[in-house]
Design goal:
By secondary structure, the chain is of the alpha/beta class. It contains 17 helices and 20 strands. It has 2 domains: about 270 residues, 3-Layer(aba) Sandwich (Aldehyde Dehydrogenase, Chain A, domain 1); about 190 residues, Aldehyde Dehydrogenase, Chain A, domain 2 (3-Layer(aba) Sandwich), CATH 3.40.309.10.
Length: about 475
C-alpha cells in the first residue's frame, strides 16, 4: 500500500467517499438514527459483471504459488492494521457495537489476525498409497469462483472468515454483504483491493434478489453463507441446479450447562460474555443457561451483579461495552420474547423494561429466571441481550433439555472438574462444546454446526480443504 493510499483512508468520511452512492439506499446508525451514508444498490446485471471479473481473474490467481498467495494474505493483514481505526469507527456507527470491549476494534483486529493465521496453515500433498506397485497422492485444487454471503452481526470478521481461505486456496471471490451493514464490508473490500490484483475480490451490495442470483449462478462453484436457517434452506434449494458446494453456518440456540461444583462468582463474568458478546447478536452465543438447584440463586445473583455493571450506549462513546440491537426487526423479536416470558410468570431479574424515549434500538441487558424449559424465550433463538436461566434437578434433565432442539451450533459445560465436564460435553449435540467458556472461536480449530445449524467446516486446515476440490492422482 502506498503512502498516498494510506492517507486516503485516515478517516471514516474518506472511507465513505470511496464507497458511498448518493442515489443508493440510506444507512442509519442504529444507536442514534443518524444517516451515515447511502449505500450502492447493485442489480443482478452488476452481479453478472462482478462474476465475470472473477471468472476472468481466476486462472492467473490460481496460477500463483501457494507461497505467493500466503504473502498476499499477510500484506492484506498489514493493510487492515494501517487503517484499523477508521474501519472500526465505521463499523461501530453502522452495526452499533461499541469501539471497546469485544466490539468494533476487536472485530477489525480479528480480521487481520485471521488473515495471518490462514496464511500460516500447511496443507501438503498427502501420499495415500506407495507400496511399490501403486502410488497415489491427494491434493486440493482451486474451485474457481466462490460466492460469500455474510451477515450483519459481525460483518467484517465473518467476511474475512469466508474470503481468507478462499483466496489462499486459489479461488476468486464475489462478496454479497447484508443489506443492513453494507458500508462496512464495502469499505473493507475497497481497502483489500488496494493490494489484490484486479478481479480477484469483488463485491455487490444489493437486496435479496442479488443474493438469490448469486446462489443460482452457473459460474459460482461454491457458496459460503452465514445467517438464518430459513435463508440457508433457500440457498440449498437454489444451488441444486448447478450442484454447488456449500458451507452453511446457520442459526443456533446454544445451551450452557453449569454443574453443581462451580463457584458462581468465579465464572459469572465469563458466562456473561458468553451470552452477551456483541449484545447477544452472535450465532454461537450462549442463549439458554441450565443451572442446578443447589447453586441456582447464587448463579442468578452473580450474573445480575455483572450485568448491571456493564455500560450500554452509543458505540463511539469509549466508556460503553454494549450497544443497540442492529435493526428494528431484531429489536422487536427480543422485546416480544421477553414480554411473553413476563406474561408466563417468569421472573425478570434485571432489564426487561426498555426506555421508549431513548433513540436507537437499545434493549437493556436482561436476565430471566424461574422460566419453564419450553418457554418461547428458551426454545426460540432470541439473538439479543436476553438470557433465560432454567433450573434443573439432575444433570440428565439438563442434557435432555439441551439436546431437545433442532439446532446444534455450539454448547458449553461449566465445572471445577474438567474430566467431569468433558463427560457431559461428549453427550451434547453440538458442533463445538466449550469447557468453562463459550463462543471462543479460534482460527486454528475447525468450526461448524450440526442439525439445523448447517454443515461444512470453517477454520484451520479443514477449512482450507473445504475451499478446494480434492484430486487424487494414482498410477
Amino acid at each position: 500500500m502506498t503512502q498516498a493510499t494510506i492517507e486516503a483512508f485516515t478517516s471514516v468520511e474518506k472511507l465513505l467517499d470511496a464507497v458511498r452512492d448518493p442515489a443508493g439506499r440510506p444507512i442509519h446508525d442504529p444507536a442514534t438514527g443518524e444517516l451515515i451514508a447511502h449505500a450502492p444498490e447493485h442489480t443482478v446485471a452488476d452481479l453478472e459483471a462482478a462474476v465475470q471479473r472473477a471468472v476472468d481473474a481466476k486462472q492467473q490467481w490460481a496460477g500463483l504459488s501457494d507461497k505467493e498467495r500466503r504473502d498476499f494474505l499477510l500484506r492484506l493483514a498489514d493493510t487492515i492494521d494501517t487503517v484499523a481505526e477508521p474501519l472500526a469507527q465505521l463499523l461501530s456507527r453502522e452495526q452499533g457495537k461499541p469501539l471497546n470491549g469485544p466490539g468494533a476494534r476487536f472485530e477489525v483486529g480479528a480480521c487481520a489476525a485471521w488473515l495471518r493465521a490462514t496464511a500460516s496453515f500447511d496443507l501438503d500433498e498427502q501420499t495415500l498409497v506407495d507400496d511399490g506397485e501403486t502410488h497415489a497422492v491427494l491434493n486440493y485444487r482451486p474451485l474457481g469462483v466462490v460466492g460469500a454471503i455474510g451477515p450483519w452481526n459481525w460483518p467484517m470478521m465473518i467476511t474475512i472468515w469466508q474470503i481468507a481461505p478462499a483466496l489462499r486456496m486459489g479461488n476468486t471471490v464475489v462478496v454479497k454483504p447484508s443489506e443492513y451493514t453494507p458500508l462496512s464490508v464495502l469499505a473493507l473490500v475497497h481497502v483489500l483491493n488496494t493490494v489484490l490484483p484486479g478481479g480477484v475480490l469483488n463485491i455487490v451490495s444489493g437486496d435479496g434478489g442479488v443474493g438469490a442470483a448469486l446462489g443460482t449462478h452457473e459460474d459460482i462453484a461454491k457458496i459460503m453463507f452465514t445467517g438464518s436457517t430459513a435463508t440457508g434452506r433457500k440457498i440449498i434449494e437454489a444451488s441444486a441446479g448447478t450442484v454447488k458446494r456449500l458451507t452453511l453456518e446457520l442459526g443456533g440456540n446454544d445451551a450452557g450447562i453449569i454443574l453443581d461444583d462451580v463457584d458462581p462468582q468465579a465464572i459469572a463474568e465469563d458466562v456473561f460474555w458468553g451470552a452477551f458478546i456483541n449484545t447477544g447478536q452472535t450465532c454461537a452465543a450462549l442463549k439458554r443457561l441450565y443451572v442446578p438447584d443447589a447453586i441456582y440463586d447464587r448463579v442468578v445473583e452473580a450474573l445480575a451483579e455483572v450485568a448491571e455493571a456493564m455500560p450500554m450506549g452509543v458505540g463511539l462513546d469509549e466508556d460503553n461495552v454494549l450497544g443497540p440491537l442492529q435493526n428494528k426487526a431484531q429489536y422487536d423479536i427480543v422485546a416480544d420474547l421477553v414480554q411473553a416470558a413476563k406474561d408466563s410468570g417468569a421472573r425478570i431479574v434485571t432489564g426487561g423494561d426498555p426506555d421508549q424515549n431513548q433513540p436507537g434500538f437499545f434493549y437493556p441487558t436482561t436476565l430471566v429466571a424461574d422460566i419453564e424449559p419450553d418457554n418461547p424465550l428458551v426454545i426460540q433463538e432470541q439473538f439479543g441481550p436476553a438470557l433465560p436461566i432454567i433450573r434443573y434437578h439432575d444433570v440428565e434433565e439438563a442434557i435432555a433439555h439441551a439436546n431437545s432442539l433442532d439446532v446444534g451450533l455450539g454448547a458449553s459445560v461449566w465445572s471445577a472438574d474438567t474430566a467431569r465436564a468433558r463427560q457431559v460435553a461428549a453427550r451434547l449435540e453440538a458442533g463445538t462444546v466449550w469447557i468453562n467458556k463459550h463462543g471462543a472461536v479460534d482460527p486454528r480449530i475447525p468450526f461448524g454446526g450440526i442439525k439445523g445449524s448447517g454443515y461444512g467446516l470453517e477454520f484451520g486446515v479443514e477449512g482450507l480443504k473445504a475451499l478446494g476440490v480434492p484430486q487424487v492422482i494414482s498410477g
